[in-house]
């Protein structure tokens, strides 16, 4: 026979039962938050209470889910190119290069990356720092990491890295950072794992600031390229002319797969002098006057490590070329 609990004991047990039932609900502002906080606290020793408070303040935003469903890279090349290859962006890039020339060229020499490509990256990403993004980074990564199943694995990794990142690797407190709808930060739009792996404290002030420190911004972009295999002085892309019997080629990505002479044998002629043994791939883009065929090389592939779209890589290459030409023209002017 079970004894009947005393009234005070029964009340205490009821309260405990209520807490046990409601505690998980109080700790799950977002799906998967309990597990995420547990992992970050385990790996870093950070307070679960502080982590939960941070995540409780983040908001799932439908506008972020809408934005990721219609990326600019889904456009055809004929519509994508004018976004980045227009007079304003080119002229602003020329002026930006000339204003920061000494720093850009010093960092370019240090990392073996042509400085016009550093400028082109920040030009394509944020219009030379003019538009670094309006979304809270924490909101973006919570939304995509915890509410967007198609790419939840990637964005949850980015969210975890953000929560684990040392304070001196960020431009400010986590809940104040702003960036793109995808959670990219700063002039070069680095994701948290890219900050971890490639960002540089170039001004040696003890912190990495990709929003306010030009040395850190430029060196981080250059280091990203260098660490992904940029070939100093190597080609990026060159036009190809197919003959009527050219073999159709569909490359799965931009990684060089064949020597140039193999593509020539398949019916694609270079329009400039190139080494026949040069490893290459082929990109077919939907241009304003019909298909455009491009030989692409290791440096083109490196740009696609920054953004995997071949349209993005081509825009960066062509913007860099236009900026370099404009700087040279300005230098030659009386």
What attributes characterize this protein structure?
five-stranded antiparallel sheet; 15 helices; 334 residues; 9% strand; two-stranded antiparallel sheet; alpha+beta; single chain; MltB-like
Task: Provide structural commentary.
The chain has 334 residues and is of the alpha+beta class. A hairpin with a 2-residue loop joins β6 (279-287) and β7 (290-296). It starts with 6 loop residues before the first helix and ends with a helix. The protein is built from 15 helices and 7 strands. It has a domain at 65-227. Helices cover 52% and strands 9% of the residues. The strands form 2 sheets. The chain has a 5-stranded antiparallel sheet. The chain has a two-stranded antiparallel ribbon with strand order 1-2. It holds the Pfam family SLT_2. Keywords: Signal. This is Murein transglycosylase. Residues 35-320 form the Transglycosylase SLT domain. InterPro entries: Lysozyme-like_dom_sf, Lytic_transglycosylase_MltB, MltB-like, SLT_2.
Short description:
This protein is of the alpha+beta class and about 325 residues long. It has helices spanning about 5-25, 35-45, 50-55, 60-70, 75-85, 85-100, 100-110, 115-125, 135-145, 150-165, 190-200, 215-225, 260-265, 300-305, 310-330; strands at about 135, 180, 235-240, 260, 270, 280-285, 290-295.
């Amino acid at each position: 026979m079970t004894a009947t609990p005393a009234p005070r004991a029964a009340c205490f047990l009821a309260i405990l039962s209520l807490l046990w039932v409601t505690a998980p609900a109080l700790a799950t502002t977002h799906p998967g938050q309990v597990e995420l906080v547990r992992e970050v606290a385990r790996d870093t020793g950070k307070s679960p209470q502080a982590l939960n408070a941070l995540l409780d303040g983040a908001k799932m935003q439908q506008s972020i889910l809408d934005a990721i469903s219609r990326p600019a890279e889904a456009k055809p090349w004929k519509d994508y190119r004018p976004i980045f290859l227009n007079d304003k962006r080119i002229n602003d890039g020329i002026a930006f290069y000339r204003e920061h020339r000494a720093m850009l060229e010093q960092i370019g020499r240090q990392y073996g990356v042509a400085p016009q490509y550093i400028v082109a990256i920040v030009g394509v990403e944020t219009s030379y720092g003019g538009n670094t993004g309006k979304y809270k980074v924490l909101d973006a990564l919570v939304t995509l990491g915890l509410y967007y199943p198609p790419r939840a694995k990637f964005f949850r990794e980015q969210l975890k890295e953000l929560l684990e990142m040392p304070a001196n690797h960020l431009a400010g407190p986590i809940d104040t950072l702003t960036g793109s709808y995808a959670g990219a930060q700063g002039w070069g739009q680095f994701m948290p794992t890219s900050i971890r792996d490639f960002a540089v404290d170039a001004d040696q002030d003890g912190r990495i600031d990709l929003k306010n420190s030009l040395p850190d911004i430029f060196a981080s972009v250059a280091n990203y390229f260098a660490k992904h295999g940029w070939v100093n002085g190597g080609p990026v892309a060159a036009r190809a002319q197919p003959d009527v019997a050219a073999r159709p080629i569909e490359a799965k990505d931009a990684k060089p797969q064949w020597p140039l002479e193999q593509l020539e044998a398949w019916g694609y002629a270079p329009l400039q002098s190139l080494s026949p043994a040069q490893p290459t791939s082929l990109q077919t883009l939907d241009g304003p006057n019909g298909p455009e065929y491009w030989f692409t090389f290791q440096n083109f592939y490196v740009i696609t490590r920054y953004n995997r779209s071949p349209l993005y890589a081509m825009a960066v290459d062509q913007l860099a070329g236009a900026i370099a030409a404009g700087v040279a023209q300005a230098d030659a002017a009386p």
